[in-house]
Amino acid sequence: MPNTVLILEDSKTQALIIAGLFEKNGFKADFSHTRDDALHKLGTRGYALLVLDVFIGEENTLDHLDLYRSAAGDTPLAIMTAGRRDMPLAGSQALNKARRAHVDFLLPKPFDLNDIHQICAEAERIRRRKGPTKRILVIDDDAYTRIIYRSYLEEEGFYVAESTSVEDALVRLEITRVDAILIDLIMPGVGGMTGIKVIAATWPNVPIIAMTGYAQNPENLEKAISRGAVTALTKPFTKEVLVSELKRALSDDRIVEI
Predict the structure, then answer these.
(1) What is the pLDDT of residue 171?
(2) Does domain 133-251 have CATH number 1.25.40.10?
């Protein structure tokens, strides 16, 4: 079922509404209302996307992610949640837990057709790559720079996501699971220097490579490393340098804590 999404949602009304959004994006929808039924379906057929609500009755889906991953194989996985009134912090904590567990996409409720469109487009992009690959997030406000780095990395087989700022990276639904992050130090808004600390808290144990074009201020590079970057590169740098540093950062054994 290559164009079908499996939705785990205990509310039948909510499941139908969500299915309608996916159907408007060209996907068929299949439903499960319990963990056992969802695992059974995953074991008997293939899906283009698996969408899991965090709270199914009294159960937290995130506690059983390993079961879903094992049953779903390489199928991209999205987590959706609206939180719980009796647990005010549960929603945000669930989203952070999902991010740290390398879930592919986040869908905080309420979401709309445009949000689903982003998820569908990225799920299709992942499917076309046919198999797992390292995902690199490039955060830089300069479009030309992002194009160049994306070209370098995709030529080496990496999956690349882009953001224009730290703020943008944190709200984009399709940027959730990343294996390494390249971040420019001089950007509008939060900026890269403060952004390194924000990113390190959001994606613990994911290597961060800082970049800057201001070579005349070496203190910036040292400060970036002291704040959590594994290395810092001075622009412009060659494809060989970027790929070498990235592979070195990815080669370190890192334990993901949930």
Answers:
(1) 74
(2) no
Q: Which two structure tokens, joined as six digits, stand for 126?
A: 């992942």
Give the residue among 16, 8, 170 at the shortest CA–CA distance from 99.
170
Q: Which residues fall within 8 angstroms of residue 10, CB to CB, at 6 or more apart?
A: 33, 34, 53, 55, 56, 57
Give the neighbor-by-neighbor strand order of the sheet with 135-139: 159-163, 135-139, 180-184, 208-212, 231-234
The whole-number pLDDT of residue 132 equals 56
Is the backbone of residue 106 left (phi > 0), alpha (psi -120 to 50) or beta? beta
Domain boundaries, the chain: 4-128, 133-251
Do 131 and 155 touch, CB atoms closer than 8 A?
no
**pLDDT at residue 90 in the model:** 46
Question: What secondary structure, in 3-state letters, does 145-162 show?
Answer: HHHHHHHHHHHCCCEEEE
Answer yes or no: same fold for 4-128 and 133-251. Answer: yes
Report the relative pairing of strands 59-60 and 55-56 from DSSP bridges.
antiparallel
d(CA 234, CA 186): 12
DSSP state of 82: -
- Residue 91 is predicted with a pLDDT of 47
- 3-class state of residue 232 by DSSP: strand
All residues at 6 or more sequence positions from 218 whose CB lies less than 8 Å from its CB, including other chains: none
Topology (CATH) of 4-128: Rossmann fold (3.40.50)
List per-block mean pLDDT (blocks of 10 residues) for the chain, which spans 258 residues: 85 90 91 93 90 87 88 87 48 63 78 84 74 83 92 90 87 77 89 87 88 72 87 90 92 50
